[in-house]
Amino acid sequence: MDPQAPPVVAVVVARDPGPWFDEALGSLAAQDYPNLSVLVIDAGSTEDPTPRVAEVLPGAYVRRLGAPVGYAAAANEALTVVEGAAFYLMCHDDVAPDPDAVRILVEEAFRSNAGVVSPKLVSWDDPSRLLQVGMSADRSGVPVALAQAGELDQEQHDSVLDVFVAPGGLMLVRADLFATLGGFDDGMVLFGEDVDLSWRAQVAGARVIVAPSARARHRVALAGGLRSLPELPGIPAERRPGGARLDLQRRHELRAALKAYSFWRLMRVLPVLALHTLGEVLVGLAGGHPEEARAAIHAWTWNLGRTGDLRTRRRELAKHRALPDSEIRRLQTTGSTRLVALVQGAFTRASDLSQLPYIPHLPHLVDPVPLDADAETLDIPVRMPAAVWVPPALLMLAVGAFLFGSRSILTSGLPAVGQFAPFPGVGRLLGAYASSTRPTGVGQLAPAPLALALAGLLTGLLLDSPGMAQTVLVIGMLPVGALGAYWVSRRLGSRWARLVAPAVYLALPLPYDAVAHARWASLVAYGAAPWVIGLFLRSTGLEPFAPESGGPGPGRRWRLWLAGGLVLAGAGAVAPGVVVAVLIGGVGCLAGSLVTSRHVARGVASLVLMAAAGWLLAFPWSAGLVGAGGQAAAVFGVPEAVFRATGIGTLLGSHVVPGGTNWVGWVLLPGAALPLLMGRDWRLAWGLRLWGMALASWAAAWGAGRGWFGVALPEPGVLLAVAGTALALSAALGVVAFERDLAGFGLGWRQAAAVLGVAGLVTASVGAIGHIGTGRWGAPTADLRTSVAALPGRAAGGRVLWLGDPAAVPSGGWQIERGVGYSTSTAAVPDLTYQWPPPDPGALVAVVPALEAAASGTTVEVGRQLAGLGIRYVVIPLAEAPGGRALPPPPRLVAGLEDQTDLRPLQLGPGVTAFENVDWRPGSGPPPASPSGLARGAAVGLEGLLWLAATGALLATRRRRRRTDAHDPQTEFAVSSPEGPRAEAGP
User: 8-353 has which fold?
Assistant: First the structure.
């Protein structure tokens, strides 16, 4: 032994090693480095490996752990049992370094002053084929290979260079650096510990390099499929091996990123990582890789459940930070590696996948298989998910069409008309939510709506960009609704059904009408209805929506109730009518079940419980909605005048307002009727139920428009979203019936009906494409803010009273008579904080008799009464938007206001009639309400706790209970020597 050579301890972590283990130990015995010791850590093998170690390396130590642990925790045992080592050589039990590898690694560590040195890793069976020559990683911690796996080694990578990641398998780590960093992160059971250690080493100022002159053969036994994933604490046993591997990789990559960034850099990176994850989820679901989507979400839920541990580790790393993130970033790659790989994989056909080399760190496309030394490529079995994937060309076409159709909105934003109220900044949104005083009416004491908190959180997540938050929450409902239809149809077991359901849902005129006429409530209902109805269908426990094990048990049912409650709480916060609409749909579904042999009463009961959970999550705001009674128009919207009510033809065509091209929606009806014409068994039963749901929604919308029910109901677009979901699912059922049942009928009219249904879908899809051309989905370009821009410049103070058709008044309000609503604002155009007034108008109710008196001609001084309410201006919009659909108010109301001696007409922009109250004086109006900050703070805290508890309970049911780690002290060996470990390995 050369006393001048710094002591190196090879730490070999083994667990049930295969036949390659003897060769790996022999390679360590053959090293020409004069001061090398070997410590074998047995991480829970079923058989004692000590005899095998003793036979090959009699001078090695073996340390057996009493319980199975992951690689990181086992390797960290070196910190407790080794003293005096200068370097650790961290080895897997399936790696065999060349005889000169350790010497070259140590020499390069001194020459380059490096903290971590990696060799060139080559194929075990064919050393002329490269596996890894160092790696990079993107900002989210996803490793990126610098050499193509399977690439022929022609010394093209044989130069020493700095890398971001020293790949696992074999790496030389300076012992003092390893101790300073606390070793590997033992919270990472398997996979990702190499990225994490390399990243933290660079944060501490150490170089990570690759020395390609040192070479090691790597069997890649675990990732290559030569041994199964071990049963360890922290590994989701309920997942299949490929899914569990992916879960481990994704959560550990994100964990490394959350720990290694400095605080301010992390605040900048987090929104980017969240957007990358959203993209991965969307592409993964639609591109046929649901495991990817699940793993992406699991990574966040798993890490957010360990914020305390992450915070502690971040503080420890901050003590040793020597380099800023900008210095470390230069070795990282740009963009999202995994998202790019998913998109590329979506376009790669199955026949092409079989020619790809195996990439251990990106297993999202294929299941890993062993390397074949006799083949230049791998025969890789393509992993097809249980639910058939959407053809990637259609996915990319849909995404491209959505972005192209939204191009003008994305660049110039949405107009301030109808329900598209401008979003204020995050401070005003959250401040309004936390306040007990509402700006509506004349200043009221009432709980703030939950929607303000949700909008504020999204605006904050988007770095206080109100325009972008509004765009996401408005036009983002189109892809959300289509994804929901796709998700529900997965249970139907047909590839084409999964295509038809979102295609029909996107072909409905409903969302495009809602954008064109500024009906945000209809858009929110369109986005939420498929998800709620999908949960409702699963709660019935009926085929094909029941889980594989049969009907949902009590635990599964309450998870469905809770998930539905969360969706209804979020959607109902913006559009309370969604809750009533889905209940009406559930009753229609139950009525449709009366024709069949089985019923869905349990599902309808579940739907009621979902609504109750949503009501509780929106408490205390929701408490006022329940007791609205005759003032429910303030909750669901003031109903249109009967002469403007939507007709049955328009409703069947899925149009929000009268007029338009009804044929686009009508041609979808034959395809939705196919399960009634040719379906059998559960196809026919669910066809009847879904048509019952659609008929109930149409009937409610039609009857409410004519005032038949005596109470206010949700606006037609909200009810049509439930009917549209039923039609889309019924059309998907028609596809299944075509595949399974049509062959049982002779040639006849059913085949002709099938052809007609397909033709209708194609025709409707072409009609829907027509909305893309403007780049705004038909949204108006004129803005109400331009028409009333002169109001704020006259003088400060005073309120604006808005009168007119409810579709033209730019905020939520109360009813004067059917088709005429009123509201107030202190700004020229009300922003989002005015969108959800409380059911009771309070003192503002005095406006109604005053306006009636003006309209009837019994007074010519209505301004004096309005001044007592602090009203300075009266504005009457005459159209949905300046230059848009005309919605004139009752002529007698306008004429009565023109006859008032204390109201002076104003010349404003087009599309509005306005008056100034000459009797108004600064300070006039009722005194401001006196809020109770303590009561509102308690309400906000209660609401937040309810949301956290509900979300946590839902996530907790998806998480496997962690087992405790324990070591058996009788199997441990004490090893301590200034020259490294020395002892005989023996039984």
Answer: Spore Coat Polysaccharide Biosynthesis Protein SpsA; Chain A (3.90.550)
